[in-house]
Amino acid sequence: MRKIKFNLLAIFFMLLAFDASFVYAAKKSKKSKAQKSEQSSVRPPDWVNSKPAAYPESRYLTASGSANFEKAADQDALANLASVFNQIISSNTNASRKMRQDTDESVSKESAYSQDVSVIVDQSELTGVEIKERFFDGKKHYSLAVLDKVEAAKIYVSAIEENNKEIARLESFSQADQFSMERCANLFIAQEKAEQNKGYIDRLFVIDSDQAKRMSTKSPQDFRAQRVEIARQIPIFVKVSGDKDSFVQKKLCDMLTSLGFRFSSDSAERYSLTGDFSLEQKMSTDKESMQTFYSFSCALKDSAMSTALWSDSFKGRASSFNEADSLDRAKNAVGKRIQKNLAESFMNFLRGAK
Predict the structure, then answer these.
(1) Is the pLDDT of residue 117 over 60?
(2) Could you tell me if 219 and 187 are in contact, meaning their C-beta atoms sit under 8 angstroms apart?
(3) Residue 176 has what pLDDT?
(4) Are 272 and 239 within 8 A, CB to CB?
(5) What is the pTM (predicted TM-score) of this model?
(6) What SS3 string covers the chain?
(7) Angstrom distance (rounded) from CA 10 to CA 6
(8) Residue 308's beta-bridge partner residues?
(9) Which of 12, 58, 72, 309 has CA 20 to 30 A from 26's CA?
(10) Does residue 77 register a pLDDT over 50?
């Protein structure tokens, strides 16, 4: 009997403890829901749904963004600001093109300018943009991206002025050495600086149109025309050893032509592009396919300076069940690498890139 009473008493206390924990959990749940409800009921700042009063349009460009995570909301705000920038620049550029159409008497020239102009402004290219405000409503994050027009204008003006100084320096080459690779490279870099300036002025026009109208820079098209004209006056002697059917030599000549230069068979030329090429065919270890290994290296030399200006190399292999097909695959691969990779490397040399 005593044992039964003890067991009943134990069960009673267990039920009492369970009931207490249930009541506590229910209270905690209600408290948690109340906190969330209270947080979500906080009134969002004005910039979430409209233009922020703290950042007037006369001085600032703004854009808001939202996402489930704070960093994603920041990125959304930056992207939206870049989009606003892009739309304004595109509108201005299209208006400029339309003006040229209206003043052009030639129908053919008019149709050439009838296409819509697509201008893309990457958010990473925007200057002076900051995330100034953030808000969390309990479910979603909001961010406000702000660009200070005055400060950004100062940065763009400074960048344009620095580029103009560099352009002037690049143009001050020796007239006695006017048809040189150095002058061609200088004009290439000047062209890129002028293209940068054009982008800066476009963005400055959005920020401060009066300041943009006062800025001037040379046309990148003019530098390109000068560079192409000079390149045409620079013959380059081309010779490749190990190239039995002159396949690689022809591809090198095509590459130089595509970049605006002339190739020559006169070894006395100031500039020479010489290379070494090799092909080797081997049966694969499983004896099921033929492998063609290729290797190529080349260098551009300036006899007047007795120095190598640029060099590059590559190697690889091609496989096929057929010997002739394996050879053709290898040659096609070599041709593509000269046309793409080698040409890009040569362009980087002209830009001064390593």
Answers:
(1) no
(2) no
(3) 59
(4) yes
(5) 0.64
(6) CHHHHHHHHHHHHHHHHHHHHHHHHHHHHHHHHHHHHHHHCCCCCHHHCCCCCCCCCCCEEEEEEEECCHHHHHHHHHHHHHHHHHHHHHHHHHHHHHHHHHCCCCHHHHHHCCCCCCCCCCHHHCCCEEEEEEEECCCCEEEEEEEEHHHHHHHHHHHHHHHHHHHHHHHCCCHHHCCCHHHHHHHHHHHHHHHHHHHHHHHHHHHCHHHHHHCCCCCHHHHHHHHHHHHHCCEEEEEEECCCCCHHHHHHHHHHHHCCCEEECCCCCCEEEEEEEEEEEEECCCCCCEEEEEEEEEEEEECCCCEEEEEEEEEEEEEECCHHHHHHHHHHHHHHHHHHHHHHHHHHHHHCCC
(7) 6
(8) 301
(9) 12
(10) yes
Bigger pLDDT: 119 vs 158: 158
Q: In whole angstroms, give the CA distance from residue 98 to residue 104.
A: 10
Residue type, 6: F
φ, ψ for residue 75, nearest 5 deg: -65, -40
- Mean per-residue pLDDT, 115-132: 57
List, in order, residues 6 or more apart from 14 with CB less than 8 Å away.
none
Residue 88, pLDDT score: 55
Query: Rounded distance, CA 71 to CA 130, Å?
Result: 13
Indicate the length of the chain as a whole number.
Answer: 354
Parallel, antiparallel or unpaired: strands 235-241 and 271-283: parallel
pLDDT at 300 exceeding the cut of 80: yes
d(CA 327, CA 321): 11
Q: Per-residue pLDDT averaged across 70-76, rounded?
A: 91
Report the C-alpha gap between 164 and 160 in whole angstroms.
Answer: 6
Are 240 and 288 a contacting pair, CB within 8 Å? no
Contact (Cβ atoms closer than 8 angstroms) between residue 276 and residue 242: yes
Which one-letter amino acid corresponds to residue 86? Answer: N
